[in-house]
Design a protein that fits this description.
Elements: H1 2-17, H2 28-103, H3 106-125, H4 129-132, H5 136-147, H6 156-172, E1 176-184, E2 190-198, E3 202-205, E4 208-212, E5 219-221, H7 228-239, H8 255-262, H9 266-272, H10 274-309, H11 319-329, H12 335-353, H13 357-389, H14 394-451
Parallel strand pairs: 1-5
Antiparallel strand pairs: 1-2, 2-3, 3-4, 4-5
Helix pairs in contact: 1-2, 3-5, 3-6, 10-13, 10-14, 11-12, 11-14, 12-14, 13-14
């Protein structure tokens, strides 16, 4: 039974190994024959495998021999190339020495030429002439890059191109030309404009100054233009065909003009004064109106008093006439009473003559004090900014101090005219009061003489 079980197990393994399809149960003899047949087939397959392995081993040996032969060939080629490289280095060193000896002073010449070419290229990049003649900067840059290599030498044509570029720059710098080009306007739009170029100094279009856009051969309209008198000269320049005209020229090629347009104008300066500055200006305007009214009034009174001095008949349309009428109202009064009546009449006229002069004096005193108040407030804000951001930026401190001092300037601008106006009007009013007192004294003296 044990032998039978073993045979059955072996048969099952043989059948599963051979991946045979499942069959119906068989007897022991058939199972034995199948086992014998399976062993034969497995032995045949093993032989085939051994044969294939022997054939592949032969191929592997052949491939190995070919790889070894290729390696030996490449090693030999590498040695030949290394030898040739060393020989070429020696030959190159010799040729370099020969080239250096033969060039001699030409090497210095090409070095200077390269430096001049680079300097000329950078100079032309910031020149207004490049707007009229585009493309010349790229040629010089290509030439400078070409000469930067020691193996590339400049030709006669290259040297002449640098000389011609310098000659063109020198010639065009003394010309005033007009041409059409694309201009970037202040609002960001681009348009074709008739442009007038004044040498290498300035370019104008439609009465406005232009600036060169850095790194490009294009121009743009200045966002902030200089004062109107300069723009008028630019417009006159464009309208003039021949002859001489006055023109606001910037000899630095736009540097001074760029700083000039950054400076604040009058209204921006006033706006820097803030609330205190506007209050000072309002006080100045009120004082000016009062002074103007007082000047007109005192002038009219002075004119009427002057006419009254030339007449014997007293009139009520002027202070002197009203004072002189007192003696007619009191013809029988004694000297002391008449003196009192005349003093009373003069005192009635004085307020109308000296009205609002005190307010002008107050403005002349208060205006600089308010300006000082604004300055102190601005300095406090400046020092607070310095506390927060430090003193690394001098413009921050200078700008704050400049704004703080604007109120002081406004205060002085208001106080000085107010002081002069007050002195002038006060003198006029005192002269009128003096005339009234003088005439009153004359009337009293005349009455006194008649009494005696």
């Amino acid at each position: 039974m044990k032998l039978l079980n073993c045979l059955m197990i072996a048969a099952a393994l043989a059948i599963s190994t051979a991946q045979a399809a499942p069959q119906e149960p068989i007897n022991v003899d058939q199972l034995l024959r199948q086992l014998q047949q399976g062993q034969f087939e497995q032995s045949q397959e093993n032989k085939e495998r051994e044969q294939r392995f022997r054939e592949q081993a032969a191929d592997q040996e052949r491939l190995l021999r070919e790889a070894i032969a290729e390696r030996n060939r490449l090693e030999q080629l590498s040695e030949q190339l290394e030898t040739r490289f060393e020989q070429n280095e020696i030959a190159l060193a010799g040729l370099t020495d020969t080239l250096t000896q033969r060039m001699g002073s030409l090497r210095e010449l090409f070095g200077v030429l390269q430096q001049v070419t680079a300097d000329t290229s950078s100079k032309l990049a910031s020149s207004f002439i490049s707007v009229e003649y585009p493309g010349r900067i790229e040629k010089l840059e290509a030439l400078a890059e070409k000469m930067s290599s020691a193996s590339r030498l400049a030709s006669i044509a290259d040297i002449e191109s640098v000389w011609l570029a310098l000659l063109q720059e020198m010639t065009e710098s003394g010309k005033v030309t007009e041409f059409t080009t694309q201009v970037t306007l202040a609002d960001g739009e681009q348009a074709q404009r008739e442009v007038v170029r004044v040498g290498t100094f300035n370019m104008v279009a439609d009465g406005s100054y232009l600036e060169l856009v850095p790194g490009t051969a294009t121009v743009a309209e200045l966002i902030r233009q200089p004062a109107g008198r300069y723009q008028d000269t630019a417009e006159t320049l464009q309208q003039t065909e021949t002859g001489h005209v006055r023109f606001g020229l910037d000899p630095t090629g736009g540097a001074i003009l760029g700083l000039l347009v950054q400076a604040p104008d009058l209204w921006e300066r006033i706006d820097q004064g803030g609330t205190v500055g506007y209050i000072v200006l309002v006080l100045g305007a009120i004082g000016l109106l009062i002074a103007l009214e007082r000047y007109i009034t005192l002038t009219r009174i002075n004119s009427k008093v002057s006419k009254q001095l030339k007449q014997d008949q007293a009139r009520e349309d002027n202070p002197l006439g009203r004072v002189m009428l007192v003696q007619d109202k009191y013809p029988n009064a004694d000297t002391e009473t008449l003196e009192l009546k005349l003093s009373e009449a003069i005192l009635r006229e004085v307020p109308a003559i000296t009205r609002n002069l005190t307010f002008i004096k107050i403005i002349s005193v208060v205006a600089p004090l308010m300006g000082l108040l604004g300055t102190v407030t601005g300095m406090i804000n400046t020092f607070q900014a310095i506390t927060l951001f430090g003193t690394g930026d001098p413009k921050l401190m200078a700008g704050g101090i400049s704004q703080a001092l604007v109120t002081t300037v406004l205060g002085l601008v208001v106080a000085i005219p107010m002081t002069l106006l007050f002195a002038t009007l006060h003198t006029r009013s005192k002269n009128l009061v003096h005339i009234l007192q003088e005439q009153a004294s004359g009337i009293i003296a005349e009455r006194s003489e008649r009494g005696h």
